[in-house]
Each structure stands twice: as structure tokens, then as C-alpha cells.
UniProtKB/TrEMBL annotation:
Keywords assigned: Carotenoid biosynthesis, Oxidoreductase
Organism lineage: Bacteria, Bacillati, Bacillota, Clostridia, Peptostreptococcales
InterPro entries for the chain: Amino_oxidase, Carotenoid/retinoid_OxRdtase, FAD/NAD-bd_sf
Pathway annotation from the record: Carotenoid biosynthesis
Family: Belongs to the carotenoid/retinoid oxidoreductase family. CrtN subfamily.
Name of the protein: Phytoene desaturase
Organism: Alkaliphilus hydrothermalis
Amino acid sequence: MKKSVIIIGAGVGGLATAIRLLSRGYNVKIYEKQKTIGGRTNQLIHDPFTFDLTASILLNREILEEVFSYAHLDFNDYIEFVKIDPTYRCFYPDGTQYDFSRDLVSLIKTLESFSIEDSIGYIKLFGEVYERYNIANRDFLQRSFENPVDFFNPSSLISALKTKAFSTSYQLISEYIKDEKLINFLCYQSLYVGVSPYEGPSIYALVPVISQLYGLWHLRGGVYSYIKALEKVIYQLGGEIITNYSVDEIIISDDKAIGVKSKELDEVYGDIIVSNADFPYTMAHLIKSGHHKGEYTKEKLKEMKYSCSSFILYLGLKTKYPQLSVHNLYLNTNFKENVEFAFTGKLPPDASMYIYCPTGIDDSMIKNEGESLSVVVRVPNLLFDSISWDKATVMDMRNRIVDTLKTIKGLEDLEENIEYEGYFTPKDLKNDFNSYGGTAYGLSPTLTQTNYFRPHFKSTQVKNLYFVGSSVHPGPGVSIVLLSSKLVTEEILKDTSSRFY
């Protein structure tokens, strides 16, 4: 008889885990709070404009492909990758702009426009971080750490020292590069995992390295096309997705997880429960017994460190702006001060921002001759309780962003070409997606909250209960969460092949 699995949440981690387990013969049902699947990796449609709700940068296409190959499927039958070059176009307040190409010849010319010394330093930096990345990928990202001996052994500890993670991203980058503009370009990318480049471990300097060495790819239709592809596979493999079902409690009997319940709907039962809900939210709200929470008590959750949040402005424009690439950065004045505001409870007055404009290369995301533009600013999460995300705050942020965009050469008339605008705040992250404290990436991946020290895939107190997502090992981001789905599946297969409770 096939073992039944209930997955809480149809985010990318839950969907990928479902495919893996279905391909190994399990019966899988996913229960999703929203009427649409995808979790934070969702979509906003306001005809004629289509926007990716949050996720827009795919750091490693091989990880996305691997989910299909795991199920013995050809990814080409489900998704279409489009090459992006330059990987980034970077704008500065003084009017300068730089394209960072995946082509080495073009890249070197850009780097030499900063200085020969910085060009040499850039290549040396990437060589060192590439070496660290391969160590981290082999010995940490691709491994589970369910038991102390998995991490606290000579081999793992030697590898940890080789990654030299005790310095910050800024400290590492500034060892090799002196030009402030180039430093800020590299530092900004640490924010993709919700940590400050001035406090987070230097291993996150790997983000720009992966972008440069492996390239950035766009999925035709946007990142949400990946969610649709996973959904298609789940149905092909016989899985079920039930939307508009808000799980309010994980049912536990005799220290075993046996099902889930909703206040409005019937209880459902399964042999294995996998929570793709944000791990801190799961512990705070879905597990009722203090005993079954284990170490993750209310007090413990409050003490843990969390990632920053995001404010996103969606702009539907009536005209094309070829001045923009797909991925753009505007690195503002007082860069460090404004970045750190997101981690100290203040709104940045001169925010640096990420500008996503996929419609220049993807006409499937727009039905007119304009652009679907998303602008992301890192802001404090709701745990600071210092910002009221009311209409006045939203409009203040909106006006600052638009005023900044208009300083870019060629975008001076942007405001008069706005046909639609929408907003996404930390409150939306909390209310719509049960993100603890309205964080963008869950638990911050600090040194004391990574590898063995990050929440594990298996509950230590409740049998048959597992976790997947950005707040568990290996960490945040679509690509890394897909790795967590692989690792948690391996744990489930290992447990159920030997015995089943």
C-alpha cells in the first residue's frame, strides 16, 4: 500500500518535494491557503501587464532542471530558458552606468573602465569565492545535518574553515576591490538572501560569482512559469493540490504527526506530514503543544535573527524603455547607511533598488507596447514594529522610487506613462503567505543559523513530521529551497525504507 503524504503549502519547496515523492511512488496531497499556488513565488496579473510577484532572479538553472530529471522527465517539455546578457545594468546617481556581461571580453572592458587594479582584483576575488563555493556546495549545501556527527567531524570542520566565512561580504570584497561603485555592486547582491553585506558571512559573496560564472537566465513567462510547470507535473504523476484550505493545526497523536486540520474544513489524515509553511510560523501556530515544539518555543523564536523584508512597486507602462535591461540596479548615495536601515528598523531615505524589466525580451508578459516593471527596495521586517505600512507610508515609498527612476537618462517621462501601479509590503508577506514577521526570506542565514545550526528537516519531537523551505537548511532563495526539497526527500526515503511508524 502506498504511503500517503500531506504537504502544507504549495510554495516552490512544497511543489518540488511533491514531485520527488510522487516519482518514488508516494500518494501526495498539497493543501494551500491561497486560491493560487506558488506561495511567495507567485504572479500578479493586471491586464495587459503580468508581473512576477517576488522572485525574479534565478541563480542556477541546473537546480531548476534537476527537479524534472529526478522524475525522469525532460525539462524542455515544460519550461523555456532565455539567455540574459548583460546579467546586470547598473545605474548611479552621477549618471554613469555599467553593463556587466557574461562575456569575458566585454566584462573585462567594463572592469578596466573602473581601473586595471580593480579589474585584476575582481578576477582574483571571483577565483577565491568560486573555490569557496565549490567547497560549500559539496560539503554543506548538498548535505543534510540531522545529527551532530554530520557536522561536528574533522572533515566538515576543515571544510568550514576553508570557506573562511567569519569575515563579512564587504570585508572580503574590499580586500580585492577599491572602487566604491564596484564594491557596492557586489555588496548589494547579498541582499538577495536578506542579509546585510556588512554583517552577513562572506560566503554570500558567492551570489554575484554564480551570476557571473553560470549566467542569469530568464524563464519565458516569468518565474511563475516554473510554478505552472511543477503543477503540471504533479497532476501528471497523480498528485493533488487543494487550494483555499488554510491549515490551522498539525494533528499529533502519541508523538506522531497524523494529519492536519482547518477551522472551516474537515480534518485530513496522512502517514507523513511535510510543512512548507514558514518554519517559525509552523512552530508558533501549527504545533500547539509546547512539548512538540521542542527547542523552538515562543521565546526562542523571538530571540532568533530574521531577514529583512521588501517593498515592491509594480508599474505597468504604456511605452518601451530600452534603456533598461532585464535585471537592473540603481545604487544610490550613502549606500551603506541606506542598506543598514533595512536591518535597524528605518526606511531608507535614499534607497538603492533592484529594477526588473522582463518585457524587453519576453512579450508573453505584456499585451501592449509598454513594459511590466517591478522595483524592489529592502525595508525592515515587521518585528521592529517601527513602521506603519499605511497608505501614507506606501505612497511615500512610491514617490521616492518614481522620483529616483526619473533621474535615469531616458526615463524622465516615466511617471506620465504609468498605466497601472500596484504595491507589495511586509504586511502582504505576513498576511498572505504566513511569513513570520513579514520577512522576505525567513530566518537570516547568519553563521549561527546555518548548516547544523539551522532548523532541521525532521522534527526532533514528532515522528513523521518534516520541514522544507527558506528557513530550514540550506537556506533562502528559489534555487536553495529546491535543494532543501531534494534533501528532505532523501530523509523521508531513508526513514520510510527502513521502517514506517
